[in-house]
């Protein structure tokens, strides 16, 4: 753990670590009362059966690691259906930290809530950066832990230092997985989090997650930002573009009745 110097020195230390490693963990940013509120809100939105539909592009799906059953896993976006998570996404503690890391004002770019129930599969190794002309190179994600996250329930694993190599995928505007042969597996760091902790990683930081093999949920709020000089406020534009892209991808598999609700 880092020592607790004066605020300016502490912020500088965090920024140095973040830029060197491509990730940062901050403990107990949110209080127990705040995470209890997020817990209740995650339970509430999970009950929105009017939204959970395989044709609704707000929803993400993952197979069960044991049965292969396709199950609901994520709302993307989340803040337009949750005032509580909207407040968290623009919480001054997060915005101030991101501004400190950027050296300038930060703007919310993207938001999603991943539920990862018991048995849910993980995500293969990838970078979040997508080589669209409009996609900010300063893209960075803040994970807010609602539940404990560890190796047993499929916490995010990052690979420090590789972000300094920039985009490791073909620059064709498509999503690509990265081969594990491109990484030194021994360098992987599991982002072990407790409720109220946050983790931050860059859009170029390779990361993955294993299946949730526990009997506990692993609900994490993923909030992504960009800096002022890299497009400023552009969340609405991004989602309009992202939805067009998603509909095109679904249509390639014969799903032409998709909608956003």
Explained architecture:
The chain is an alpha+beta fold and 261 residues long. It has one domain: q2cbj1_9rhob like domain (Jelly Rolls, Sandwich), CATH 2.60.120. Helix content is 25%, strand content 20%. It is built from 5 helices and 10 strands. It has helices spanning 7-21, 32-46, 83-89, 92-102, 235-252, and strands at residues 23-26, 59-63, 70-75, 106-114, 140-145, 156-158, 189-190, 198-202, 207-209, 220-227. A hairpin with a 6-residue loop joins strand 2 (59-63) and strand 3 (70-75). Helix 1 crosses helix 4 (92-102). It is globular and about 50 Å long.
List keywords for this structure.
261 residues, alpha+beta, Jelly Rolls, seven-stranded antiparallel beta sheet, three-stranded antiparallel beta sheet, disordered N terminus
């Amino acid at each position: 753990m880092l020592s607790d110097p004066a605020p300016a020195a502490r912020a500088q230390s965090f920024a140095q670590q973040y830029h060197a490693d491509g990730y940062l963990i901050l403990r107990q940013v949110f209080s127990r009362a705040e995470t209890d509120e997020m817990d209740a809100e995650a339970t509430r939105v999970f009950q929105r059966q009017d939204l959970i539909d395989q044709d609704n592009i707000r929803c993400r799906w993952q197979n069960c690691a044991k049965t292969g059953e396709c199950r609901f896993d994520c709302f993307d976006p989340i803040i337009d259906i949750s005032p509580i998570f909207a407040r968290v996404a623009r919480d001054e503690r997060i915005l101030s930290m991101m501004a400190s890391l950027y050296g300038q004002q930060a703007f919310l770019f993207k938001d999603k809530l991943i539920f990862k129930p018991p048995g849910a599969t993980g995500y293969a190794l990838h970078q979040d950066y997508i080589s669209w002309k409009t996609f900010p190179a300063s893209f960075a994600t803040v994970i807010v832990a609602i539940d404990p996250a560890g190796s047993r329930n499929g916490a995010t694993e990052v690979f420090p230092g590789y972000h300094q190599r920039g985009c490791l995928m073909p620059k064709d505007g498509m999503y690509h997985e990265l081969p594990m042969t491109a990484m030194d597996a021994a360098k992987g760091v599991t982002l072990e989090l407790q409720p109220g902790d946050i983790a931050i990683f860059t859009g170029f930081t390779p990361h993955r997650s294993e299946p949730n093999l526990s009997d506990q949920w692993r609900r994490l709020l993923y909030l992504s930002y960009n800096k002022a000089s890299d497009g400023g406020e552009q969340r609405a534009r991004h989602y309009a573009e992202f939805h067009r892209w998603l509909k095109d991808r679904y249509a390639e598999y014969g799903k032409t009745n998709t909608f956003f609700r």
